Automatic annotation (TrEMBL):
Residues 192-233 are annotated as: Disordered. It comes from Lonchura striata. It is a multi-pass membrane protein. Keywords: Membrane, Transmembrane, Transmembrane helix. Its main location: membrane. Residues 223-233 have a biased composition (Polar residues). This is Synaptogyrin.
Length: 233
């Protein structure tokens, strides 16, 4: 945007909900938010099954509770992260400090890249444990659709978070250019500790030299002294 830094307008402008919703990062955050709900919701609701002769329920992913705990934890934290950065995006145009905007964009890059990595690990982990699951551990094939949904949307989440990191990086590049001369700048004329004299016009300097008169020679004083006669009383 013109007149701003790091992809936002000048601070203090009115909040426009329609423009905010149409922003690419807002759309990706909302999609990631939905994907995270699908992942942890599928595991919480149908991710635990048991045999006919058992009472205790086990994780559907090869009875590995770490797999279910990982999917739920990553899903819930990603859900909260999306809400946090949606709120930050809405407040971002009100941030007047260029340094604070830079910190927000850098945190967006780091968090988005980190969550993309976590979703990649989660996708590989859940897929591996689902393939290692034994049919006799779930003879009724309960929760199969939920397990596949968790794996699928874990895979999709990788790309949505990578997209957020890419958009944040673009905002950082845009902000680095637009804020190049906008921070820590001081007008030299306002600096009271200037080590040099102020600029003088050449014509003024010429006039000053022209009006300068040299002092009379020392002989003039001697002549006057010789012409003076003392009187004796």
């Amino acid at each position: 945007m013109d007149g701003g830094a790091f992809g936002a307008g000048k601070a203090g402008g009115a909040f426009d909900p329609q423009a905010f919703i149409r922003q690419p990062q807002t759309i990706l955050r909302f999609v990631s938010w939905v994907f995270s709900i699908v992942v942890f919701g599928s595991i919480v609701n149908e991710g635990y099954v048991n045999r006919v002769d058992e009472v205790e329920e086990h994780c559907i992913f090869n009875r590995n509770h770490n797999a279910c705990n990982y999917g739920i934890t990553v899903g819930v934290l990603a859900f909260l992260s999306c809400l946090l950065y949606l709120a930050l995006d809405a407040y971002f145009p009100q941030i007047s400090s260029v340094k604070d905007r830079k910190k927000a964009v850098l945190s967006d890059i780091g968090v988005s890249a980190f969550w993309a990595f976590l979703w990649f690990v989660g996708f590989c982990f859940l897929t591996n444990q689902w393939q290692a699951s034994k049919p006799e551990d779930n003879p009724l094939n309960e929760g199969g659709d939920a397990a596949r949904a968790a794996i699928t949307f874990s895979f999709f989440s990788i790309f949505t978070w990578v997209g957020q990191a890419f958009l944040a990086y673009q905002r950082f590049q845009l902000g680095a250019d637009s804020a190049l001369f906008s921070q820590d700048y001081m007008d030299p004329s306002q600096d009271s500790g200037m080590p040099y004299a102020p600029y003088t016009n050449e014509e003024d300097a010429t006039d000053a030299v022209g009006t300068y008169q040299q002092p009379p020679p020392a002989d003039a004083f001697d002549t006057e002294t010789q012409g003076y006669q003392t009187q004796n009383y």
